[in-house]
Design a protein that fits this description.
Elements lengths: L10 H15 L17 H26 L5 H5 L2 H15 L6 H17 L5 H7 L1 H24 L8 E6 L2 E5 L7 E7 L2 E5 L10 E8 L2 E5 L6 E8 L2 E4 L16 E8 L2 E5 L1
Parallel strand pairs: 1-3, 2-4, 3-5, 4-6, 5-9, 6-10, 7-9, 8-10
C-alpha cells in the first residue's frame, strides 16, 4: 500500500524549524529578540570599544572594595592603578593591529611613567621637570602616523593627497573635503569641537584612516551614507559612536572598509554621522 509521507519541513519538527527560520530571517517589531543575519559579526568590534570604559570603572571599583574591606593596603593598591592603564594601551594597540598608534602609545607612556614613579624607579620631581616630553612624543607619533599612511599609499602606486589636520583647542575647527582620493586626516579636539565633512568625497585606496584625539572635547566625522566605517578607538571615560541610522543595502560590511577611525577619546566624544 502506498503511504502518503509528510512533505519535507512539515510536522511538529518542521513547523518548529520554520518558526525559528522565520524569526531569524524576518524579525518582527513586536518580538523581544531578533537576529539579523546581515549584522552577525558586525557588532563585536563596536561593542568591544564601548566596553573599555566600563571595564576600567569595574576594575577601579574592585580596587576600592579591596581597600575599604582592608584586604589590601590602600597605598599599595593605588600604586598599581597606572599599570592597569598600561595594559589597556597595549590591548588597544594589538586590537587595532597597530593602526591606532597615537592614543594608546600616549596612554602607555604617561601611565607607564607614573607607574615607575609609584614603584620608586622614577623620582617624584622628575615628572614635573620632564613632562614636556609627552608633548614632544605626541608630535612625533602624529608624524609617524602620517608617514606610514603616505608610505602605504605610495607602495600601492597611488599619490597621497588631500590629507588634512583639524585642531580645535578651546574653540571650533570645521573642515569640508571634496575629493575622489581621500587618504586620511588627523582630528584633534581639546576642550573644543573638531568636525570633518567627507560627504562629497570618495576613497580610491581603501582604507582611509582618520586619527582622532578627543580630550574633554567633541570630534565629529561626517561621511557618505553608503560608507562602511570601522571604529578602532581607545575610549577612556569617553565614547565613540556611529550615530548613522541603519543604512541601505549598499552599506554592507566589506573586507576593507572605506574608512577606519582610530585614536583616543578621553573624557570626550567621537561621533560618526552622515
Amino acid at each position: 500500500m502506498k503511504q502518503n509521507l509528510p512533505a519535507k519541513g512539515s510536522g511538529p519538527a518542521g513547523n518548529q524549524l520554520a518558526v525559528i527560520k522565520t524569526a531569524l530571517l524576518k524579525p518582527s517589531i513586536g518580538d523581544t529578540y531578533f537576529i539579523n543575519p546581515n549584522e552577525i559579526g558586525t557588532m563585536p568590534r563596536n561593542l568591544v570599544g564601548r566596553l573599555t570604559t566600563g571595564t576600567v570603572i569595574v576594575l577601579i571599583g574592585l580596587v576600592l572594595l579591596l581597600s575599604t574591606t582592608g584586604l589590601v593596603e590602600m597605598r599599595s593598591v593605588w600604586g598599581w592603578i597606572a599599570a592597569l592603564f598600561v595594559l589597556i594601551g597595549v590591548w588597544a594597540l594589538i586590537r587595532s593591529e597597530f593602526r591606532n598608534l597615537v592614543g594608546p602609545a600616549m596612554v602607555i607612556a604617561i601611565a607607564g611613567t607614573f607607574f615607575l614613579r609609584n614603584v620608586g624607579v622614577v623620582p617624584d620631581g622628575a615628572i614635573g621637570t620632564w613632562w614636556p616630553l609627552f608633548v614632544v612624543l605626541f608630535g612625533v607619533l602624529v608624524m609617524i602616523n602620517r608617514s606610514r599612511r603616505r608610505q602605504r599609499i605610495a607602495l600601492e602606486g597611488h599619490r597621497a593627497a588631500d590629507e588634512l589636520i583639524a585642531i580645535a583647542i578651546f574653540g571650533t575647527d570645521e573642515r569640508r573635503v571634496s575629493t575622489d582620493q581621500f587618504t586620511g586626516a588627523e582630528l584633534v579636539s581639546v576642550f573644543g569641537d573638531a568636525v570633518i565633512d567627507l560627504r562629497e568625497s570618495s576613497v580610491r585606496t581603501r582604507p582611509a584612516i582618520i586619527e582622532t584625539v578627543s580630550v574633554f572635547g567633541d570630534a565629529e566625522v561626517r561621511v557618505p551614507d553608503a560608507w562602511d566605517v570601522r571604529i578602532e578607538t581607545l575610549n577612556v571615560f569617553g565614547d565613540t559612536t556611529d550615530r548613522r541610522p541603519q543604512g541601505p543595502a549598499n552599506r554592507a560590511k566589506k573586507d576593507e572598509p572605506e574608512l577606519i577611525v582610530t585614536g583616543i577619546a578621553m573624557f570626550g566624544d567621537i561621533q560618526i554621522r552622515d
